[in-house]
Amino acid sequence: MYKEFSKVYDEFMEYADYDLWYETLCQLIGVTEVQGDKLLDLGCGTGEILLRAHHDFKCEGADLSSGMLKRASEKLNSEGVEVPLYEQDMRELSLGKRYDVIVSMFDTVNHLTNREDLVKLFRGIYNHLEEDGVYIFDVVDREFMEEMFPGGVFLDERENMTVIWEHEYDEETGLDYIDTTFFVKNDMGSYDKYIEDYEKKVFTHEEIGQCAEEAGLDVRGIYENSELAGRRYFYTLEKKSK
Protein backbone atom coordinates (compact mmCIF):
# COMPACT_ATOMS: atom_id res chain seq x y z
CA MET A 1 0.00 0.00 0.00
CA TYR A 2 1.10 3.55 -0.75
CA LYS A 3 4.08 2.52 -2.88
CA GLU A 4 3.58 5.57 -5.09
CA PHE A 5 1.74 7.78 -2.62
CA SER A 6 4.74 7.84 -0.27
CA LYS A 7 6.66 9.77 -2.96
CA VAL A 8 4.20 12.66 -2.93
CA TYR A 9 2.56 12.31 0.49
CA ASP A 10 4.27 15.29 2.11
CA GLU A 11 3.46 17.54 -0.84
CA PHE A 12 -0.13 16.35 -0.78
CA MET A 13 -0.42 17.02 2.97
CA GLU A 14 1.23 20.44 2.84
CA TYR A 15 -1.90 22.15 4.20
CA ALA A 16 -2.39 19.73 7.09
CA ASP A 17 -2.11 21.47 10.47
CA TYR A 18 0.06 18.88 12.17
CA ASP A 19 0.50 21.08 15.21
CA LEU A 20 -3.26 21.11 15.74
CA TRP A 21 -3.43 17.35 15.17
CA TYR A 22 -0.80 16.83 17.85
CA GLU A 23 -2.48 19.30 20.19
CA THR A 24 -5.75 17.39 19.79
CA LEU A 25 -3.96 14.12 20.49
CA CYS A 26 -2.40 15.52 23.67
CA GLN A 27 -5.80 16.74 24.83
CA LEU A 28 -7.23 13.25 24.35
CA ILE A 29 -4.33 11.68 26.22
CA GLY A 30 -4.88 14.22 28.97
CA VAL A 31 -8.45 13.09 29.68
CA THR A 32 -7.28 9.49 30.24
CA GLU A 33 -5.58 8.14 33.34
CA VAL A 34 -2.44 6.99 31.55
CA GLN A 35 0.71 7.69 33.53
CA GLY A 36 3.57 6.37 31.40
CA ASP A 37 5.33 7.98 28.45
CA LYS A 38 6.04 5.13 26.01
CA LEU A 39 4.22 5.94 22.74
CA LEU A 40 3.81 3.96 19.53
CA ASP A 41 2.54 5.74 16.42
CA LEU A 42 0.92 2.88 14.49
CA GLY A 43 0.54 4.02 10.89
CA CYS A 44 3.13 6.75 11.40
CA GLY A 45 3.38 7.70 7.73
CA THR A 46 6.24 10.12 7.11
CA GLY A 47 6.71 10.86 10.81
CA GLU A 48 5.08 14.24 11.39
CA ILE A 49 3.42 13.20 14.66
CA LEU A 50 6.66 11.59 15.83
CA LEU A 51 8.55 14.82 15.12
CA ARG A 52 6.28 16.55 17.62
CA ALA A 53 5.67 13.76 20.11
CA HIS A 54 9.32 12.91 20.79
CA HIS A 55 9.59 16.03 22.97
CA ASP A 56 6.96 14.64 25.34
CA PHE A 57 7.16 10.86 24.94
CA LYS A 58 9.57 7.99 24.36
CA CYS A 59 8.45 7.35 20.80
CA GLU A 60 8.49 4.53 18.31
CA GLY A 61 6.76 4.30 14.94
CA ALA A 62 5.36 1.56 12.73
CA ASP A 63 3.88 1.54 9.25
CA LEU A 64 2.98 -0.97 6.55
CA SER A 65 4.67 1.10 3.83
CA SER A 66 8.44 0.86 3.51
CA GLY A 67 8.30 4.03 1.40
CA MET A 68 6.59 5.96 4.18
CA LEU A 69 9.10 4.66 6.73
CA LYS A 70 12.01 5.72 4.54
CA ARG A 71 10.62 9.25 4.37
CA ALA A 72 10.01 9.27 8.11
CA SER A 73 13.56 8.11 8.81
CA GLU A 74 15.05 10.79 6.56
CA LYS A 75 12.91 13.47 8.16
CA LEU A 76 13.67 12.43 11.74
CA ASN A 77 17.40 12.03 11.06
CA SER A 78 17.56 15.49 9.50
CA GLU A 79 16.26 16.88 12.80
CA GLY A 80 18.66 14.77 14.85
CA VAL A 81 15.79 12.75 16.31
CA GLU A 82 16.33 9.05 17.04
CA VAL A 83 13.07 7.10 16.90
CA PRO A 84 12.91 3.34 16.24
CA LEU A 85 10.77 2.56 13.18
CA TYR A 86 9.24 -0.79 12.28
CA GLU A 87 7.65 -2.13 9.10
CA GLN A 88 4.49 -3.72 10.46
CA ASP A 89 1.02 -4.67 9.24
CA MET A 90 -1.34 -3.26 11.87
CA ARG A 91 -3.42 -6.44 11.62
CA GLU A 92 -0.41 -8.53 12.62
CA LEU A 93 1.25 -6.24 15.13
CA SER A 94 4.15 -8.08 16.75
CA LEU A 95 6.81 -5.99 18.46
CA GLY A 96 7.26 -7.94 21.69
CA LYS A 97 6.86 -4.89 23.92
CA ARG A 98 4.19 -2.74 25.55
CA TYR A 99 3.35 0.93 25.38
CA ASP A 100 1.46 3.40 27.52
CA VAL A 101 -0.05 5.13 24.49
CA ILE A 102 -0.67 3.77 20.99
CA VAL A 103 -2.08 6.11 18.37
CA SER A 104 -3.33 5.76 14.78
CA MET A 105 -4.06 9.14 13.22
CA PHE A 106 -5.46 10.34 9.87
CA ASP A 107 -8.24 7.70 9.61
CA THR A 108 -5.67 4.91 9.35
CA VAL A 109 -8.18 2.45 10.82
CA ASN A 110 -10.53 3.05 7.88
CA HIS A 111 -8.01 1.23 5.69
CA LEU A 112 -9.07 -2.05 7.31
CA THR A 113 -11.70 -3.60 5.08
CA ASN A 114 -13.62 -6.01 7.29
CA ARG A 115 -14.68 -6.72 10.84
CA GLU A 116 -12.22 -9.59 11.26
CA ASP A 117 -9.27 -7.32 10.53
CA LEU A 118 -10.57 -4.74 13.01
CA VAL A 119 -10.70 -7.41 15.73
CA LYS A 120 -7.15 -8.48 14.80
CA LEU A 121 -5.98 -4.89 15.17
CA PHE A 122 -7.64 -4.50 18.55
CA ARG A 123 -6.23 -7.80 19.82
CA GLY A 124 -2.76 -6.68 18.78
CA ILE A 125 -3.34 -3.39 20.56
CA TYR A 126 -4.43 -5.26 23.68
CA ASN A 127 -1.22 -7.30 23.66
CA HIS A 128 0.93 -4.20 23.24
CA LEU A 129 -0.69 -1.95 25.87
CA GLU A 130 0.44 -1.59 29.45
CA GLU A 131 -2.30 -2.30 31.99
CA ASP A 132 -3.26 1.37 32.23
CA GLY A 133 -2.46 2.08 28.58
CA VAL A 134 -4.70 3.73 26.01
CA TYR A 135 -5.26 3.41 22.25
CA ILE A 136 -6.35 6.57 20.42
CA PHE A 137 -7.47 6.63 16.80
CA ASP A 138 -9.79 8.54 14.48
CA VAL A 139 -12.23 7.36 11.82
CA VAL A 140 -14.44 9.04 9.24
CA ASP A 141 -18.11 8.24 8.59
CA ARG A 142 -20.30 7.74 5.52
CA GLU A 143 -21.26 11.41 5.41
CA PHE A 144 -17.58 12.38 5.19
CA MET A 145 -17.04 10.07 2.22
CA GLU A 146 -20.09 11.39 0.39
CA GLU A 147 -19.09 15.01 0.95
CA MET A 148 -15.50 14.40 -0.15
CA PHE A 149 -16.48 12.74 -3.43
CA PRO A 150 -19.57 14.51 -4.79
CA GLY A 151 -20.57 12.73 -7.96
CA GLY A 152 -17.80 10.20 -7.40
CA VAL A 153 -14.91 12.53 -8.28
CA PHE A 154 -12.77 14.96 -6.30
CA LEU A 155 -10.40 17.30 -8.12
CA ASP A 156 -7.61 19.02 -6.19
CA GLU A 157 -5.72 21.57 -8.30
CA ARG A 158 -2.68 23.34 -6.89
CA GLU A 159 0.22 25.34 -8.30
CA ASN A 160 2.56 22.36 -8.60
CA MET A 161 0.19 19.43 -8.28
CA THR A 162 -3.13 18.17 -9.58
CA VAL A 163 -4.85 15.24 -7.89
CA ILE A 164 -7.84 13.37 -9.33
CA TRP A 165 -9.72 11.12 -6.92
CA GLU A 166 -12.26 8.70 -8.39
CA HIS A 167 -14.53 7.05 -5.85
CA GLU A 168 -17.07 4.25 -5.94
CA TYR A 169 -19.02 2.84 -3.00
CA ASP A 170 -20.08 -0.80 -3.20
CA GLU A 171 -23.15 -1.29 -1.01
CA GLU A 172 -22.86 -5.08 -1.21
CA THR A 173 -19.33 -5.22 0.21
CA GLY A 174 -19.58 -1.99 2.19
CA LEU A 175 -16.25 -0.87 0.75
CA ASP A 176 -15.13 2.42 -0.75
CA TYR A 177 -12.89 1.94 -3.78
CA ILE A 178 -10.64 4.92 -4.49
CA ASP A 179 -8.44 5.45 -7.56
CA THR A 180 -6.05 8.37 -7.20
CA THR A 181 -3.95 9.96 -9.94
CA PHE A 182 -1.29 12.55 -9.08
CA PHE A 183 0.35 14.90 -11.56
CA VAL A 184 3.32 16.51 -9.81
CA LYS A 185 5.49 19.20 -11.37
CA ASN A 186 9.16 18.25 -11.42
CA ASP A 187 12.35 20.33 -11.58
CA MET A 188 12.30 20.20 -15.40
CA GLY A 189 8.90 21.89 -15.54
CA SER A 190 7.11 18.79 -16.78
CA TYR A 191 4.81 16.58 -14.70
CA ASP A 192 5.38 13.17 -13.14
CA LYS A 193 2.36 10.88 -12.92
CA TYR A 194 1.66 8.63 -9.95
CA ILE A 195 -1.26 6.25 -9.51
CA GLU A 196 -2.51 4.77 -6.25
CA ASP A 197 -5.54 2.54 -5.76
CA TYR A 198 -6.87 1.50 -2.37
CA GLU A 199 -9.94 0.52 -0.40
CA LYS A 200 -11.48 1.95 2.74
CA LYS A 201 -14.32 0.92 5.00
CA VAL A 202 -16.59 3.01 7.19
CA PHE A 203 -17.19 1.22 10.48
CA THR A 204 -20.22 2.15 12.57
CA HIS A 205 -19.87 3.08 16.23
CA GLU A 206 -21.64 -0.18 17.05
CA GLU A 207 -19.18 -2.25 15.01
CA ILE A 208 -16.18 -0.57 16.62
CA GLY A 209 -17.63 -1.10 20.08
CA GLN A 210 -18.37 -4.77 19.44
CA CYS A 211 -14.90 -5.45 18.01
CA ALA A 212 -13.25 -3.67 20.93
CA GLU A 213 -15.32 -5.73 23.36
CA GLU A 214 -14.31 -8.94 21.61
CA ALA A 215 -10.63 -7.99 21.90
CA GLY A 216 -10.84 -7.12 25.60
CA LEU A 217 -10.88 -3.34 25.22
CA ASP A 218 -13.27 -0.75 26.64
CA VAL A 219 -14.42 2.27 24.64
CA ARG A 220 -13.84 5.05 27.17
CA GLY A 221 -14.60 7.99 24.92
CA ILE A 222 -15.82 9.04 21.46
CA TYR A 223 -15.13 12.64 20.47
CA GLU A 224 -16.42 14.34 17.34
CA ASN A 225 -14.04 16.76 15.66
CA SER A 226 -14.60 18.93 12.58
CA GLU A 227 -11.59 21.24 12.91
CA LEU A 228 -8.81 19.09 11.52
CA ALA A 229 -9.89 17.60 8.18
CA GLY A 230 -13.63 17.20 7.87
CA ARG A 231 -15.86 15.58 10.45
CA ARG A 232 -14.27 12.61 12.15
CA TYR A 233 -14.51 10.71 15.41
CA PHE A 234 -11.68 10.11 17.85
CA TYR A 235 -11.84 7.02 20.04
CA THR A 236 -10.03 6.27 23.27
CA LEU A 237 -9.82 2.56 24.12
CA GLU A 238 -8.42 1.02 27.28
CA LYS A 239 -7.91 -2.50 28.56
CA LYS A 240 -10.89 -3.85 30.48
CA SER A 241 -10.54 -3.68 34.23
CA LYS A 242 -9.75 -7.05 35.78
UniProtKB/TrEMBL annotation:
Give coiled-coil spans as residue ranges.
Answer: none
Q: Which Pfam families match?
A: Methyltransf_25 (PF13649)
Q: Where is the Methyltransferase domain?
A: 40-133
Keywords for the protein's UniProt record, in alphabetical order: Methyltransferase, Transferase
Q: Domain of life here? A: Bacteria
Please give one Gene Ontology molecular function term for this protein.
methyltransferase activity
Q: Tell me, what is an example of a GO biological process annotation in this record?
A: methylation
Official protein name in the record:
Methyltransferase
Q: Which organism is it from?
A: Propionigenium maris DSM 9537
